[in-house]
Each structure stands twice: as structure tokens, then as C-alpha cells.
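Researcher: Checking consistency across runs. Here is GAL3B protein again:
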Amino acid sequence: MARRVAVLLAGCGAFDGSEVHEASAVLVHLSREGAQAEVYAPNIPQMHVVDHVKGQPAPEQRNVLVESARIARGNIKDLATLDVRGLDALIIPGGFGVAKNLSTWATQGKNCSISREVEDVLRAFHAAHKPIGLCCISPVLAAKIFPGCEVTVGHDTECEQWPYAKTAEAMKELGCRHVNSQVTEAHVDTRNRLVTTSAFMCNAPIHDIHDGIGKMVREVLRLA
């Protein structure tokens, strides 16, 4: 039986939704490993819409489920219908949608709240001892919900290669252990069954990001 993996999206676009390259890499690597991806997204409005040419907010409104369907080629389900009993693992790609639509991390940092629907899903997989894969900014969700967990968002010292390294410090303040890693690596928290990789938290060639996500996917499937 092929392992069934829920992939939770947060819209479509690096600055206001799911990072498209990360989401695509997750789906490609799941396919390569013979797993069946089931794509979900919450049926909620986006926090805002960003014009990705200008890098500025645009005066329009979009829906997270509708936008996520672009990545899923229409094959997507409302997150409200997810049943953890029929699934083997959960993976959440990154992108600012995680910090804007699935949580309020973008505006509140460590003091953020997480969408109740998203938190319930994460807690359900965790309680069922089923693995959760998180990349880029999405490990902040685990840091907020599971105190004492081990995660990586890359490095904790800000520099040109690691422009978002302060995220690691905020996660440490939430009581989790941050493990420095390279973009091609994934960290496994065996106790909590969490697998994390930094992806676009690093200024790296896209093939290195793709390889790191592949490592994360393989480790998730190994635990499933």
C-alpha cells in the first residue's frame, strides 16, 4: 500500500502563500518515493495579497483554498475534511502564507497565534505518533505548539546567506531546541517525529533547496 501523505498549503506565492518551488519539490519527491499526496488548504481569506512584481501589498482579496488549488492543479480538499486516521504523515511547505494565513507569526513573532484548524491537525498527527515534515518557516508552527521539540530553520546567526536567522532565536525563546544545519540537510526529532529543513530560509541555489526537501520527504516516509 502506498503511504498517504497530507500536504498542507497556505496559498500560492512566496510572499503571501505557499512557496511554489517548495510545494512542487514536496510533491515531486513524494511521487518519486511512491507515496500518494493528498493536498489540503483551509477555506479562509488570505491575510493580504502581495504583488510579486512590485513586492508590495495589492488592493484585492483572495481565498487560501482557491489559491492553493493552483499548485494542486485543482486536486485539493478543504482542510476541515482532513481525517488523520486515513493518513500516514503530514508535510507543510514554507512560504510567508504559513506566517500570515496559517498563523500570525509574520506580525507577532513568538507571540503569534495559530489557526485553530491548523493547530488541531498538527496535534492530531502528533498524538497519533505520525510524522510531520516542515520546511522553511513552517517549523515555527511546531515550536509554538510542541515545547521542547527539536527543529531547524538553518542557522541562528544572521548573514547574507542566512537572512532570516533571527527566527531561530525566537524559536529558542519558545523553549524548543534549534539545530543548525545546511540547506541540503534535514533534522529529525525522533521523539516528536518531526522532520525539518531550511529551504528558502537560506540564499542557496534552487537545486540545493530541492535536495534538502528531498531529504526531509525521505525521512518523513521512513518514519511513516
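Researcher: Does this match what you'd expect to see?
Model: One thing to look at in this run: DSSP finds eight helices and eleven strands in the chain.
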